[in-house]
Write a structure and sequence with these properties.
By secondary structure, this protein is mainly β. Helix content is 12%, strand content 50%. Keywords: Membrane, Transmembrane, Transmembrane helix.
Length: 280
């Protein structure tokens, strides 16, 4: 057989073998528990495992497009569950790694329009809200670039960087239990008075950097130590029922503080920069 014929035969064999190899590789990965894909109603749920990473980066075109929920896990049970929908197959979540960073990125098949100068815009694009659950044992920092991250409790010290309207919600879900005691008033009547509260949203030491980002501290959050570096047109919201023991850092004059509780605002005021807006 001529050399050219041998090469042609080899190419033909490879063409037919590649799909089979891909199928076998996919099945092997599923058997080993690296990832699985399930169809649940109108949802497609992808589950996978990963090793610890120093940095987690959440990327989305707009905050509401990608909702990322953080849950505690042991080092040998770190995993993710990403949900997308049959109705919008062009929208999905891509989970991948690069060095010491784990990326969770919203992927859209919709084409972005461009301005004459080449800048892209999301105007006219309708993004389906997708969700991913991350089960983490530890990390150094989490970067939220345009998406939304929700943590209901986080005992380890943690650093978050919020950019491009990236949003961090703390203590949004859970409960706050108020302990009350029966006390006799000066009139001789007895009434129940709140003594202290137990918060399900338990946060230790948090370092929050934001450049046009959003930080929301919910009603069931108890933050022991909060360090802020809020720059640009960031936004800070603290629920009146939340508890924050220590606050330090800096807040730009352009940052919006939404409905601050009376007891919190006097502690935030010294952190606000006195810089004047630039004159046009």
């Amino acid at each position: 057989m001529k050399t050219s014929d041998k090469l042609l035969s080899l190419v033909i064999i490879l063409i037919f073998a590649m799909p089979l190899l891909a199928v076998f590789s996919f099945r092997k990965s599923m058997r080993e528990g690296k990832y699985t894909i399930e169809n649940i109603g109108n949802q497609i749920v992808t589950r996978g495992t990963f090793q610890p990473y120093k940095t987690i980066k959440i990327i989305a075109p707009v905050p509401d497009a990608l909702q990322c929920f953080l849950f505690p896990a042991t080092p040998d049970s770190m995993r993710y569950a990403a949900v997308r929908y049959h109705a919008t197959p062009y929208d999905s979540i891509n989970v991948y790694n690069g060095g010491d960073t784990l990326y969770v990125q919203y992927m859209s098949g919709q084409t972005q329009a461009e301005y004459p100068d080449g800048r892209k815009t999301t105007a006219g694009i309708s993004y389906k809200q997708l969700r991913v659950n991350l089960y983490l044992s530890s990390f150094d920092d989490i970067v939220v670039d345009g998406g939304t991250v929700t943590a209901d409790s986080l005992r380890q010290p943690a650093k978050f960087s919020l950019v491009n309207l990236g949003t961090l919600q703390l203590g949004k879900h859970g409960r706050r239990t108020v302990r009350r005691e029966r006390i006799q008033a000066g009139t001789g009547e007895y009434k129940m008075v709140g003594i202290d509260s137990v918060y399900s949203g338990d946060f230790n030491k948090l370092d929050i950097e934001a450049q046009n980002g959003r930080l929301i501290i919910g009603s069931v959050a108890w933050v022991r130590d909060l360090k802020l570096d809020l720059r640009g047109k960031s936004r800070l919201t603290i629920d009146s029922a939340a508890r924050v023991d220590q606050i330090s850092g800096s807040i730009s004059a352009s940052t919006s503080i939404i409905n601050p509780p009376p007891g919190i605002m006097p502690r935030l005021s010294p952190l606000i920069s006195k810089e004047e807006p630039l004159q046009q």
